[in-house]
Amino acid sequence: MQIRIDAVELPGLTCTPGGPADGGEPDLRNVHVAVQRRDRPAELLDPQPGDAARATWTLECTAAASSTGTGSGTGTGTDVKGPYVQGRPGGRFVYLSWGAVDGSGAFGMFRRAKLMLDAVPVHVLDAAVSSGLLVGRLGLTDACGKPLCGRVVPPRIVWTAESAG
What we know:
mainly beta
């Protein structure tokens, strides 16, 4: 099975790091977003510039029946695992990491969005296991115009099952 993340509404290449009481910190520049690998926070999948029109990542994963699986609802679920799937059974998620890329190409992470797989509706996850593709669509700019961060669940992200072919 694959998980594809389709993102739009990226916030731009510059970001003020804090809120009104940020102490006058300088803006972060050359902002990028990428999927973070499990247990390897410095290993990022396909960093995309914060001013891109859209960003898409496709993650290889496996799915197996589990009593503590992913998907919102009750009863037996599906446990989704893969190199970019984080967390324990029943609480799996994908991290989108935001960072400022310096002149040497180093990615300095400053925030993350946690795409909660346990919030995928059970019928959608079951259909995705059958079809081979789970798709999450979301905008990456928060209400304050900054990079989206924190726990991301519907309706902020829309999950669908699609044909992998």
